[in-house]
Design brief:
Blueprint (H helix, E strand, L loop, with lengths): L1 H27 L4 E5 L10 H7 L3 H4 L14 H13 L2 E8 L5 E13 L2 E11 L1 H15 L7 E6 L10 H7 L3 H4 L10 H5 L2 H12 L2 E8 L5 E13 L2 E11 L1 H19 L4 E5 L10 H7 L3 H4 L10 H5 L2 H12 L1 E9 L5 E13 L2 E11 L1 H4 L5 H47 L6 H32 L7 E3 L1 H18 L3 E3 L10 E3 L1 H17 L5 E12 L2 E10 L33 H11 L3 E7 L3 E12 L4
Parallel strand pairs: 14-16
Antiparallel strand pairs: 1-4, 2-3, 3-4, 5-8, 6-7, 7-8, 9-12, 10-11, 11-12, 13-15, 15-19, 16-17, 17-19, 18-19
């Protein structure tokens, strides 16, 4: 009996020793995470391999649910895997697991139920880190899809949840991380805290999956904490319909971003300079930009001067010598032009200016001129002469303004005083033309009628020219019907046209509203002037008066009015001076048509006062087409 007890005790000791050896063996294994979990999934034991692979110390892991190693979106599957192990005797699986520091690794797991005398006491779980094998297997697919390793672009792959799988040389150069430092980390590492707070990185992946691609430019963060302006393209990568992950390409555009910011700062700087007039001209010399200094020195607001030719700042004598045009020609030929001379302000006063004009090119294409003007009037006046010269300059300017006022009042008075008797003469002459007074008298009456009409037109043109020069021409806004205006103009010229057997035709675009908002009087004046010219210079054929809708946006529209004829046309050599006041392109000793040479000049100025333009096309001997484009509001009519 004693022998049997001794044998039983020896056997138990051997079993205990064997269990201890097995425990030490399991605990010392480094390449496998081997641990026990109870029937509820709580960790009971922990070995060296589990600490190395999962990153937790034994006291941090024991007692916690083993599902903590699963990604948040897969934690519900942990319990399902335990049930599968119970049903099948074991469960094997590969998938992404999470370490203590949050990085992910590809793991092979085996879960096996453990029984003691037919009673379930828990499960053993064996985990192996197969990340290197996983990445090696995916690399064949990944690197076929990537362009390759480049230095100027960060090109790398993300897994479907946004964790970094690969890393190229460009990514290391741009972002500062080595591959060993970043692989397994979530790509939100590269984003600012503000972007992460609004879940921007994850939104990028969602958009890329839905639309097949995502692109944006924005600030990103390097390893050292510095920020760079990045262009980012994210593309989902599929293999046989299964999402492998995302290809992400990032380019550092910080230098370009800073250059754009410098350009914007420069624009703000120029616009704020008060001591220099700094502005751009088009290649033709029209004002394109306007800064605060230009407004202070020249007296014009931006909306008053942009689009006007820069010769407006020059004296009449300089304009006659075509000095402004010569300045541009020299700047274009030599790259730069500089001079000092007299210039004119908006109010007609003079200033002594230093002017520098520089030609601006974009890839050898002239895009305009930069013009810098400084007011040196005070420097010009010496200390001894300053007071007297300033007084003389002020008196001269006052006299000039006074002379303009006297001229305007004189023309206004004369026009009003002469218009009344002239109207009576025209009225009586028109009545007499309907009477049979004999051939000689009828001819004389007709001459009186025509001559008085021309005289009245001359008075009107002189008055209009004076008002335009003094800026006393207001622009009105009222509802008016475009079609009625066209009909009235055709009716007004019909008598003169009939006398020459000319046809009067025309159309009005059906898209033009019934009424528009603008200055009806000015539109009528321009149309009538162009129509009279067309009849005057056409001996056979027709005169066409039409209106066309050019643009319409919301309650704004632009209409082109056109008057075309089959008359004598205009010589190429005469086209440049066609709109100069008191200029006639037909020699007065040879022509039979009347006129003062003011009509076209007035019409062009009126069109510009209404915010529009006036132009023409003509071929000598083939006729002419004059048009003017005017912006209007949409009227209250249907």
């Amino acid at each position: 009996m004693a022998d049997a007890s001794q044998k039983s005790a020896d056997l138990q000791n051997k079993l205990d020793a064997s269990e201890e050896i097995f425990r030490l063996l399991v605990e010392s294994v480094r390449d496998y995470a081997i641990y026990m979990i109870d029937p509820d999934g709580k960790i009971v034991t922990w070995n060296e391999g589990a600490r190395r692979i999962n990153g937790y110390e034994e006291h941090e892991a024991v007692g916690r649910d083993f599902s903590m190693f699963y990604p948040p979106e897969e934690r519900d599957t942990a319990k399902q895997q335990m049930h599968s192990a119970l049903e099948s005797g074991s469960f094997e699986n590969e998938g992404w697991k999470i370490k203590k520091d949050g990085t992910r690794f590809w793991a092979s797991i085996v879960i096996t139920p453990v029984y003691e005398k037919d009673r379930l006491v828990g499960f053993s779980q064996v985990t192996r880190d197969l990340t290197e094998r996983k990445l090696a297997g995916q690399s064949k697919t990944i690197f076929r899809l990537l362009v390759g390793s480049v230095k100027d672009y960060a090109i790398f792959m993300l897994d479907p949840t946004g964790h970094v799988l690969t890393w190229n040389e460009g990514a290391q150069r741009i972002k500062g991380y080595k591959s060993s430092e970043i692989i397994g980390k979530h790509f939100s590492t590269f984003y600012t805290e503000e972007a992460k707070a609004i879940n921007h990185p994850q939104n990028e992946l969602e958009i890329a999956k839905v639309e097949g691609r995502y692109e944006e430019s924005g600030w990103r963060v390097r390893k050292d904490g510095s920020q760079f302006w990045a262009n980012v393209v994210i593309t989902p990568v599929y293999d046989g319909g299964a999402l492998l992950g995302f290809a992400k390409i990032t380019r550092d555009l910080t230098e370009r971003k800073l250059a754009d910011q410098k350009e914007e700062v420069f624009k703000l700087l120029v616009s704020g300079v008060g001591d220099y007039a700094i502005f751009m001209l088009t290649p033709e010399g029209n004002v394109l930009t306007w800064n605060e200094g230009a407004q202070r020195i020249k007296g014009y607001k931006a909306d008053e001067i942009i689009g006007k030719h820069f010769s407006i700042f020059y004296t009449k004598e300089a304009q006659k010598r075509q000095h402004p045009q010569k300045e541009l020609e020299i700047a274009r030929a030599e790259g730069r032009y500089e001079e000092e001379g007299w210039r004119m302000r908006k109010d007609g006063s003079l200033l002594w200016a230093n002017v520098v004009i520089t030609a601006i090119y974009d890839e050898q294409q002239l895009i305009g001129f930069a013009k810098v003007t400084r007011d040196l009037t005070q420097r010009l006046l010496s200390d001894q002469e300053r007071e007297s010269s300033a007084k003389l300059l002020d008196e001269t300017n006052t006299e000039l303004r006074h002379a303009l006022e006297i001229k305007s009042r004189f023309l206004s008075t004369i026009s009003h005083e002469v218009r009344t008797p002239m109207g009576a003469i025209i009225g009586m002459a028109e009545v007499l033309t309907t009477e049979d007074l004999g051939e000689d008298i009828n001819t004389a009456v007709a001459n009186i009628f025509v001559s008085s009409q021309r005289l009245l037109q001359l008075l009107n043109n002189l008055l209009d020219a004076a008002k335009l020069e003094s800026g006393e021409v207001p622009i009105n806004s009222e509802n008016f019907p475009v079609r009625s205006v066209l009909g009235d103009i055709r009716q007004l010229i019909s008598r003169d046209a009939l006398a020459k057997n000319l046809r009067i035709v025309g159309t009005c675009d059906a898209a033009i509203p019934e009424t528009v908002v603008g200055d009806e009087v000015k539109v009528r004046q321009i149309l009538l002037n162009l129509a009279h010219n067309a009849v005057k210079f056409t001996e056979a054929g027709e005169v066409n008066i039409s209106a066309e809708l050019l643009t319409r946006a919301m309650s704004k529209l632009t209409i082109r009015f056109k008057v075309s004829d089959t008359g004598i046309g205009i010589n190429q050599s005469d086209k440049d001076r066609l709109f100069l006041p008191f200029t006639q392109v037909v020699d007065s000793t040879k022509r039979v048509q009347g006129g003062t040479g003011l009509g076209l000049s007035i019409s062009k100025q009126l069109a510009e006062r209404m915010g529009g333009t006036l132009g023409f096309e003509s071929e000598f001997g083939q006729g002419s087409s004059f048009w003017f484009d005017i912006p209007f509001g949409v009227g209250s009519g249907k």
